[in-house]
Amino acid sequence: MGFGRRLWYTGGLLGLLVLTTAGPALAHHSFAVFDHTRTVTVKGTVTKFTWTNPHAFLELDVPDDKGGVKPFTIELTSINMLSRTGWRSNMIKAGDRVRAVVSPLLSGQPGGLLLDVTLPDGRKLESPVPGVTTFKRTPETE
Amino acid sequence: MDVKTISRRAVWLACVVAASVQLHAGAQGARSANRPDLSGSYDRYRGAPGARGGAVGARGGAPRQDPYAPPPAPQAPLKPQYLKEWQARQQASREADLKGEPFAAGVVQCLPEGMPAMMNGPFPMEILESKGQVTIIQEAYNQVRRIILDQPQKPIDDVEPGWFGHSVGHWEGDTLVVDTVGIKESVRYQNMTHSKDMRIKERIHSVAPDIVWDEITIEDPATLEKPWTYTLAYKRTPGYTLLEYVCEDNREYADEHGVQKIRIGSPGK
Fold first, then answer.
1. pTM, full prediction
2. In sequence order, which ranges of chain B are alpha helices (DSSP H)?
């Protein structure tokens, strides 16, 4: 059974429940710090995947145009919500090259809220963000 | 022993038995023999899709009613001065959100929600019935409240103000009747002011084999025009075991203006 189907069977229904019943006001904090009008696509190498509450974090090194890398911090939801939708702490490891779609921080800091991430083997994981439909996805620009 | 003595003894025995049964019933509360055990894990229940809070028209179809969905909560009957303050706070909060600079609520500092907010979720909840106590656990922030059965409530001034207060309860048939006092004034529900004398009354009961309602009445004569009653519903989640929740790596904080901010970059990298 492929990952996608397994994820659906083990957690998809619960995930749907979480998404439809937990409004943003019930989350650990307000999601108003993230830009609801656009997404950015970030490609980089994972330096750390922190499986902690109140939120999990994914740290990336993203290549810049000068041949170096810049850090980018991606916030996820609580690990309880992630667990209930099929995520596990060992799904992402340091060194993985990933592609993440995030709603960027309005402050301009290099960070954002994870909407989905594609792993090196092509698996795409959706993030169980409360009120996810309020975040507008915009096409990748490169 | 003559007949008179026997009948006198029989009457005396009957009185002792009756008194003992009454005492027993009093100690246990008036609980019905077939009362369902509330123990188990639950999620908030807002009604079947297309029908919530009573009669709501399903999309494109005839109106449908879910009798197990809780009725919509009425607006809290705050006294005029508190209502005005609350409306101003809510408006300021909405404006701050629109600017992308939301006010940092207590949960930003990983503080629990406390009572009565913890009964709103947001995560799964567990009810545990044990001898002399009913325990309610909310997965988020590992929140726990203990309802002591068949004990008198303490005077409010004898309870140190806390997050979950002092709760006593008893059974009235199938309904667990709970009384809670001693909630800190800083522990707010939906950002509303309350006094130290707030009292929370609850009637917790099954309305279907897998649905439980909690009818909550807030009494606070200092801030409310009259008691405020609203109902929350929960649905059993058989087989679900609550997860732990420890605020281990909180990167959110309130800045000097009380605005929510996030630390960027891994502290341990």
1. 0.81
2. 3-28, 80-98
Using a CB–CB cutoff of 8 Å, tell me whether A83 touches chain B: yes
Distance CA A124, CA A140 (A): 16
| pLDDT in 10s for each residue of chain A, 142 residues | 344 444 433 333 333 333 333 333 345 667 889 999 999 999 999 999 999 999 999 999 999 999 999 999 999 999 999 999 999 999 999 999 999 999 999 999 999 999 999 999 999 999 999 889 999 999 987 5
At position B48, the amino acid (one-letter code) is: A
**b/e per residue A77-115 (b: at least 16 CB within 10 A):** bbbbbbbbbbbeeebbeeebebebbbbbbbeebbbbbbb
Chain B partners of A21 at a C-beta cutoff of 8 Å? Answer: 43-44, 46, 121
Q: How many CB pairs under 8 A join A and B?
A: 98
Residue B191 is classified by DSSP as: T
CB-CB neighbors (< 8 A) of B252 in chain A: 28-29, 54
Measure CB to CB from residue A48 to each of B139, B245, B269 and give the nearest one.
B269
Q: Classify each residue of B24-63 as buried b or exposed e, where b means 16 or more C-beta atoms within 10 Å of its C-beta.
A: eeeeebebeeeeeebebbbbbbbbeeebbbeebeeeeeee
Phi, psi of B120 (to 5 degrees): -85, 0
| ipTM score | 0.78
Which tokens hold the place of A65? 């145009």
On whether the CB atoms of residues B146 and B133 are closer than 8 A, the answer is yes
